[in-house]
Specification:
single chain, about 150 residues, alpha+beta, six-stranded mixed beta sheet, two-stranded antiparallel ribbon, about 40% helix, about 40% strand
């Protein structure tokens, strides 16, 4: 009985299109997947178009970039600072996970640190609102390295 109720509910959601949309916008996972595809392709215009005007980037750690960066201009400024320090190159999106209004991208980047290539895995957790990236929390697998690079 429970399985037939579940099947009926799934069919109704699929028929209505609600499984692919939330309040008339794409799902958080769809938004983040489009963002990561543009990121991998080096399509900066699309990357920036995915940011809400009032996006907030939350950088952890103990370095000059630690804290909240509010607004698209602040986000671009901090991302340019990261690029200058690391010459980072996105290399892989390992997975995108989603739930409710959030989606997380587990990614791999290649950074240049002291002239050497360093592989860094990161988890970027996004809150999506109105089809745009509204907030992002960054979690790095080697925070000590990130703090050292951003502090140099």
């Amino acid at each position: 009985m429970a399985e037939s109720v579940r099947e009926t509910a799934v069919a109704a959601v699929e028929e209505s299109g609600a499984g692919a949309q939330t309040h008339g916008m794409t799902t958080p996972g769809t938004v983040v997947r489009a963002y990561t595809e543009a990121w991998l392709a080096g399509d900066i215009a699309t990357v920036l178009d995915r940011y809400a005007d009032d996006i907030v980037l939350h950088y952890g750690g103990a370095n000059p970039l630690t804290g909240d960066h509010r607004g698209r201009d602040a986000a671009v400024t901090v991302l340019l600072a990261v690029q200058e320090k690391t010459q980072r190159v996105p290399t892989e999106v390992i997975d995108v996970m989603e739930a409710n209004t959030y989606a997380a991208a587990w990614v791999r980047e290649q950074w240049t640190v002291d002239g050497d290539g360093v592989d860094l895995m990161r988890l970027l957790t996004y809150r999506v609102a109105d089809g745009k990236l509204a907030e992002c929390w960054l979690f790095d697998h080697d925070q000590a390295l990130v703090d050292r690079v951003f502090s140099s």
